[in-house]
UniProtKB/TrEMBL annotation:
PANTHER family: HEAT-SHOCK PROTEIN 20 FAMILY MEMBER
Domain SHSP: start-end pairs: 35-146
Species of the source: Marivirga aurantiaca
InterPro entries hit by this protein: A-crystallin/Hsp20_dom (IPR002068), HSP20-like_chaperone (IPR008978), Small_HSP (IPR031107)
Protein name: Hsp20/alpha crystallin family protein
Recorded family membership: Belongs to the small heat shock protein (HSP20) family.
Gene3D superfamilies noted in UniProt: 2.60.40.790
Pfam family, one: HSP20
Length: 146
């Protein structure tokens, strides 16, 4: 059984026919699908270990070549584009729930990292960026009270 959102905006009974309902359902589904495809923003998990920071970006269906990772001015930016490939194989899509489009995520980095040792890998739809800490630099300082 499918739940359907009730719309109070219907002005009269004529607009409540089953045919009109189906027309609205499919038309609105494709309009919303196009909006969703334009606003792809992958989920990112940020973790900190004793020796490194780890960013895990959930981007299934992409290739390694689809990503750009840039570091500058104390920030790391992960960007890319997930394209909808509508192959001409006789399929008619009635609903597209997967999100597509260009994305860019930027994260501020602490001062105690080793910028030249940052590594990235992509496996099973997860892009992992490992940012090692510089153990010589301490961010924690104790202030003596006078």
């Amino acid at each position: 059984m499918t739940l359907i959102k009730y719309d109070q905006g219907l002005p009269n009974v004529a607009n409540r026919s089953f045919s009109n309902f189906l027309d609205r359902f499919f038309n609105e589904s494709f309009v919303n699908a196009n909006k969703e495809m334009e606003s792809f923003n992958p989920q990112v998990d940020v973790a900190e270990g004793k020796k490194e920071f780890e960013l895990s970006v959930a981007v299934p269906g992409m290739k390694k070549s689809d990503f750009n990772i840039d570091m500058s001015d104390g920030k790391i930016t992960i960007s890319g584009e997930r394209k909808f490939e509508n192959e001409k194989d006789g399929k008619n899509y009635h609903s597209v729930e997967t999100k597509y489009g260009a994305f860019s995520r930027t994260f501020y980095l602490p001062d105690n990292i080793l910028e030249d040792k940052v590594e990235a890998s992509y496996q099973d739809g997860i892009l992992k960026v490992i940012i090692p800490k510089d153990e010589k630099k301490e961010l924690k300082k104790t202030i003596q009270i006078k």
